[in-house]
C-alpha cells in the first residue's frame, strides 16, 4: 500500500510550498492541512521541534523542510545520479537557504528604522552578490541549478520564491535572466502547473 | 589515485571543524589551509559564493559546510543505510543549524544592550526548548542523534560545538546528560581523539 502523507502548516506557501511542489511532481496524494496562526500555540507542542511544516509519513512525523525535500526529491526521481551530483544539488539548496536567511534578517525586523537600514545592506550588497553568482551557476549548468538537468533543487528554488519574494518585498529573479528562465521552466512542468492552478491562492 | 583534498578557512575551528572531523575519521589526508582574517578580502573573490570554508576535491571547489559534511559522511561510511535513515540524519543536522542560527542572532550583535536583550530571549526560551528536545532525541536513539547508531550527524554536532559554545558564551551540552555523553563518545573515537590532540589550538 502507498504511504499516507499529511502536511501540516500555516495557510501560506511559505516553507511548505517546495514540499507541495515535490509531492505534486511525483503525483503523490497528500492531505494539505492548513492551520490558522491563532491555532499555532496549540499545534506547536505536538510538533517534534516546535516548528512547522511537519510532514507525517504513515503517521511518523518528519520536520525540517529542506531535509524533507531531499527525501522526497529522491523518491520522485529528482536526486542526483551519484554522490557528487547530490553534493552539487545540496550546495545550491544551501545557498538558497543563505539567501532566505539574509532576507529574513530584515524582513522580520519590527523596528521600521532598523529594518530600512538592514534592508539596504542586504538589498544593495548581499543579494546582488549571491544572486549574480546563482544566476551564473544556472547558466553554467545549462539552465538548471545543478548537473545540467532538472533536480529537486530547481523545484525547491521556485517553490520557495513566493515566500522569499513576499518577505523581501522584491521580485528576486526579475533582473536575472537565467533565474527567470528557470522559474518559467519549472512552472511549465505539467504537474507543477496543475498544482499552481488548483492550490489555495495566498499572498506568500 | 586517491583524490586530493584541500580545505581553506579562517584559523579557527568554526564551520570547518566538522569537515576536519569527518576527514580525520576517514583517515583521509587533507591540506588544512588557514588564512588570517586580514587576508579574507583577497581570498573571498576566489571562493564560489564569497563564503568559507571551501573544500577543493581534486581542484574542484565545493562550498556549504553541511553539504560537504553529508558528502564526506557518505564517503567515510557514516551515512544512513537507506533514504529514511538519511532523512533522520538530515533532520537532526538541520535542527543543529537552527540552534547555531539562534546563537548567531545575538552572538554577532554589535550593540551591547541589544545583544543582552536578544541573548536573554534565546538563552531563556529558544535554546532550552530546542536542546531539551535534542537531548531526548539522543536518548530515544540509544545515545546517537539518529537511527540508534553513529552517523555523520554526531560528528557534525560535536565538531561544531567549539564554535557554538564560543559564540553563545555557554557550555551548550552541560545541562543535558545525553548530549554530554554523546560529546564524550565522539571525542573518544580514536581517529577523532588523534585529530583533537594534534590540531592547532584555537579558542573557537
UniProtKB/TrEMBL annotation, chains A, B:
Catalyses which reaction(s): RX + glutathione = an S-substituted glutathione + a halide anion + H(+)
InterPro entries (alphabetical): Glutathione-S-Trfase_C-like (IPR010987), Glutathione-S-Trfase_C_sf (IPR036282), Glutathione_S-Trfase (IPR040079), Glutathione_S-Trfase_N (IPR004045), GST_C (IPR004046), GST_superfamily (IPR050213), Thioredoxin-like_sf (IPR036249)
A Pfam family assignment: GST_N
Positions of the GST N-terminal domain: 3-80
Gene Ontology molecular functions: glutathione peroxidase activity; glutathione transferase activity
Main enzyme class: transferase
Gene3D superfamilies: 1.20.1050.10, Glutaredoxin (3.40.30.10)
Signal peptide: none
The enzyme's E.C. designation: 2.5.1.18
Domain GST C-terminal, residue spans: 82-204
Source species, domain of life: Eukaryota
Any single biological process term in GO: glutathione metabolic process
Keywords assigned by UniProt, alphabetized: Transferase
Family under the similarity heading: Belongs to the GST superfamily. Sigma family.
Protein known as: glutathione transferase
Organism the protein comes from: Locusta migratoria (Migratory locust)
